[in-house]
Amino acid sequence: MDHTDNLTFSISQVAKMLGVVPGTIRNWEKCGLISVKRSENNYRMFTLNDLNKLRKVKEYSVDRHMGAHAIRVLLGSGDDNESELEDSVRQKRERQVSKKLMSEKWREIRKEQGYTLEEVSRAVGISVAHLSKLENGGNVSLELLRDLAHFYGKSPLYFLEPSSEETYLVRRNEGDELDVNGDPGIEMHSLCAMREHVMYPVLCEVEPGSGNKTPHTHNGEEFIHMFSGMLEVHLKDEQPYVLRSGDSFYYKGGDQHWWWNPGKRPARFLWVHSSVSK
Fold first, then answer.
1. How many C-beta neighbours within 10 Å does residue 203 have?
2. What is the SS3 assignment for 74?
3. Would you say residue 99 has pLDDT above 90?
């Protein structure tokens, strides 16, 4: 027997070999793209076959920007003739951000704050035509989403459309996944499925060394409650606040702030943003 048949790797080792963070691999597992064996201590154990499969998953997910359903189809078929499926997936991806954004809000907030198309486009560095297309339902990159939200003094969450099915109850692990930061190592899931609300509760998981490291401000107020791990919050010119399991933190969005995980394991916390403040 070849000794490599019994060779196993930890999730950290596999993440390093693939050039991703462990949270990405855990997310692929949640999506059913790979099934991983566990040790007696409940640690994930990856074989060489798992590693080869994950290389394909990374190619489809990261390099080709395919969704979980398309990846499952490709992994199951083993068919190298992917062009038709890729075209379908690409078209779906191009619509993905726009589906989650309420495009009408862009026009409403611009007029509410008294700006012209020319003033806003000049401030964020895009053309008038691009901004006009956005206000009529065009696609928006995550970078532009953040720039526009910052210009209008809003959190990016303000522009996200709630779940298509309005409900009071969001079951465990059923919150919509949000991708508004564009920063690696951050997973966010909405905990609210109401169309009209002033609070935006989000479940966050941040990998070690990751975070929203760009100092920023916006309107409203924010609340953090730590479930596990560690989070370092920088607020104005004050000494950093280090939050640990069970700690809570409340601050004004208008005060310059940024945060990151300085610990050795993922930070998991509840983040609530209110679009209004006193």
1. 19
2. helix
3. no
Question: Residue 165 falls within a domain, yes or no?
Answer: no
The residue to which tokens 């943003």 are assigned: 273
Amino acid at 172: R
Considering Cα of 132, then 136, then 138, then 142, what sign does the dihedral take?
positive
Q: What is the pLDDT of residue 273?
A: 86
Task: Report the distance separating Cα 18 and Cα 130, nearest Å.
Answer: 36
Question: What's the sign of the alpha-carbon dihedral 105, 148, 185, 246?
Answer: negative
Position 66 scores a pLDDT of 67
**Whether residue 53 sits in one domain with residue 27:** yes
pLDDT of residue 70: 66
**Cα–Cα dist 146/217, whole Å:** 11
Q: How many CB atoms are closer than 10 A to CB 79?
A: 9
pLDDT in tens, 203-249: 999 999 888 887 877 778 899 999 999 999 999 989 999 999 999 99
Contact assessment for residue 60 and residue 74, using Cβ atoms and an 8 Å cutoff: yes
Q: Which domain holds residue 24?
A: 3-94
Query: CA-to-CA distance for 8 and 14, rounded, in angstroms?
Result: 10
| 220 vs 275: CA distance, rounded Å | 4
If one counts the domains in the chain, the total is: 3
- Whose tokens are 């309005």? That residue is 166
Tokens of 167: 């409900």
170 domain-assigned? no
The per-residue pLDDT of the chain, averaged, comes to: 80
